[in-house]
Design a protein that fits this description.
By secondary structure, the chain is an alpha/beta fold. The chain folds into two domains: 1-31, no CATH class; 37-214, Ribonuclease H-like superfamily/Ribonuclease H (Nucleotidyltransferase, domain 5). It contains seven helices and six strands; from the N terminus they run αβαβββαβαβααα. The protein has helices at 3-11, 57-61, 104-115, 137-144, 160-169, 184-195, 207-214, and strands spanning 50-51, 67-74, 81-87, 93-97, 125-128, 147-150. The chain has a six-stranded mixed sheet, with helices on both faces. A hairpin with a 5-residue loop joins strand 3 (81-87) and strand 4. The longest helix is centred in the middle third of the chain and has 12 residues, at 104-115. It starts with a helix and ends in a 6-residue tail after the last helix.
Length: 220
């Protein structure tokens, strides 16, 4: 049984009694997701987006490196943000600071900078939700070679690796804090700590260990 199934049972009241102390999120209810987006998604008026159903089967299988999931972690008063990226095969995480804010142009600049330092074999696809911050997705694709796909509205499980990582990151970056106060070096330290943690889903190997194998010149 996966953790999502357990939480869904808790939220529906099928598991009783349950103590918040036993849950990592300490919540016995599910927040509405989407930072104020409409049910159809903020990009519904943009007809050029590629929906997740068009994503290659290789992404779902996790047999090939270079397929990423991404989202924003928002700071106090929605005035600051950090982009979080997780590679699906290795669960390797990158934290991308957004000192210029989280408008579409700033997010595009930051993601282009983060991805262009990676080998082409690690720049295959990116799956994001339908937020305003990705209005310049075409520019990101052109600059990086990524193909960007968009999850269905209010469907965080379609980016499960990223969602789980964001939950872990909130232990380091609590809600209600100014995320601009964290220097790049500290964000790199947090990411390194997560990436050095062995994972059961990786046969007790760490994401950094696997990424070193794939992050080699000529590796596809």
């Amino acid at each position: 049984m996966c953790t999502e199934t357990i939480y869904e049972a808790v939220y529906r009241g099928l598991v009783v009694p349950v103590s918040p102390r036993l849950l990592r999120t300490a919540r016995t209810y599910r927040h509405r997701r989407g930072r104020g987006r409409s049910r159809d998604g903020a990009l519904r008026q943009c007809t050029t987006i590629k929906p997740i159903r068009q994503r290659p089967a290789a992404v779902e299988s996790r047999r090939q490196a270079g397929h990423w999931e991404g989202d924003l972690i928002i700071g106090a008063g929605q005035r600051s943000a950090i982009a979080t990226l997780v590679e699906r095969k290795t669960r390797y995480a990158m934290l991308v600071p957004l000192p210029g804010g989280h408008a579409a142009a700033s997010v595009a600049d930051a993601l282009i900078g983060a991805f262009t330092v990676l080998p082409a074999g690690l720049r295959r696809t990116l799956t994001w939700d339908q937020g305003n911050e990705m209005f310049q997705h075409a520019r990101i694709e052109q600059a990086t070679g990524l193909r960007i796909y968009f999850a269905d509205p209010h469907s965080p499980w379609q980016r499960g690796s990223n969602e789980n990582t964001n939950g872990l990151l909130r232990q380091y970056l609590p809600k209600g804090t100014d995320l601009d106060s964290y220097p790049r070096q500290e964000l790199q330290h947090i990411a390194a700590e997560l990436n050095d943690r062995p994972r059961l889903c990786l046969a007790d190997r760490a994401p950094a260990q696997l990424m070193r194998r794939w992050h080699q010149p000529g590796t596809a």
